[in-house]
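Task 17 of the worksheet. Students: predict the tertiary structure of the chain below and write it out as structure tokens. Keep your answer in the requested format; marks are given for formatting as well as content.
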Amino acid sequence: MLIKGSCHCRNICFALVWEPEPVEIPARACTCSFCTKHGGVWTSHPSGSLQVQVRDPDGVSRYSFGTRTAVFHVCSRCGAVPVVTSEIENRLYAVVSVNAFENVAKSLLRAGSVTFEEETETARLARRKRGWIAEVQFVETGRTP
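Model answer:
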């Protein structure tokens, strides 16, 4: 399945290849203060591949907090956060926002809640290596949205 998503103004778009075809997609609502305030609900498929296209790189803010091991890619134009990345041992991992999906039926999403407040940084990075998308590519298209 090719899952497409974007921020509201389409400055940040993504295509996630999810094989085999999912029976359901986990939709994890993070309980950290940033995700709570932004409605962050994330998913990933460890064996999937993700391509993120950014039309105007100057229109993207990168925000990190806490352990500073995750980067929230925030569209400066519309305020949406469609992608979060984490660089671990020189490899980029990612999760995507299910709220940014454009072609996935809501009935396919399995809602859940997660909290990582008690997690050590080492455990956090190990969890991301196991569960986040491991094949991630960013492309700057240079086109104005």
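Marker's comment: The mean pLDDT is 94. The radius of gyration is 14 Å.
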